[in-house]
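S., here's the first fold you wanted:
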Amino acid sequence: MPRWLRPAIATALLLAGAGLASFGLIDLIARGYGTLTWLFLAVFVVPILTWGIYRIRVAPAPALAVAPDRSEPEDRVGHRAGTPDRTSAPRSQ
């Protein structure tokens, strides 16, 4: 980058900022953020709230998964007491 280009860019940005400030840039940004807030509420919050209310009042509750029977303790490998080990061949005596 040439040595003269950096001060030229800084001067151009300074003049552009001063020109935009004369139009009331702060008020324009404040109104823009207010509009974006209402847009956010309309696009994201309202649909999620209505879907949630629908799910609570109208839709049936999903069926719960049945947990496995844990009445018998497991050994360290994860086998239930009294069940044969199916991974190994039967022992010969």
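And the second, which I think is the more interesting of the pair:
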Amino acid sequence: MANDAVREIMADVEGLWAGLDEIFGSFSASDWDRPHGADWTMATVPFHLSYFDRDIVANGIEKGPDMHVEDIAARIDQLLPEIGHAPPTLIDNHPEPDYWYPVPGEAPG
């Protein structure tokens, strides 16, 4: 199961980079200077993508199929400040409701 998940992630990353190679290969010299967001240019995009692929994906695969999501999340939290971004603030978009829906055969909690 875990090896299948790793293979799926690797295939996804390879597919992403193949698509990006095609896009980036079509750029003229002036295209690389175009803005991308508030702080980046198109020239910085491959760097940032490869940085995360190496530190998140490749290092995770290197750890083996038993890598933990918590390790990946901790590494992302560590990397974001290194590239000038604050770690995300987690928001619970699905809080527990303060009401109870009865389930057949289940007593109220």
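Why I say that: The first helix runs from residue 2 to 25. Strands lie at 35-36, 40-41.

Talk tomorrow,
H.
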